[in-house]
Amino acid sequence: MLTRRIILSGLALDARVGILEHERRATQPLHIDAEFDVDITHKTDDHDIHSVLDYRSLREAIIEQCTRAHVNLLETLTEQIAQRLLADFPDISAIKLRISKPMAFSDCAAVGVEIQTRR
Which of 75, 80, 98 has its CA nearest to residue 7? Predict the structure, then answer.
């Protein structure tokens, strides 16, 4: 079967995530990278956005999931996002999702979590 990979790179947003007291009081920046494998079941129509999985919808779902409520652990947030995307977008066959906290430590660019899942 033919597969298409959609890539979101460097999505930056502020979210309430973290188990430490100062993380519970304020939002902090997150950087998100995601790859979605989509099974191609029909021909792409260059004049019809509905003939492909619209990456705007993927981006909106990620942002909404990240900003809806406080989450203690990045691990939990990555799992929640992956579950939602698989539930909302049946064309997705696999997801690779990385979420990083760029402000976590002063001596490194970021710390993060990555998961991969398949249907």
Answer: 98
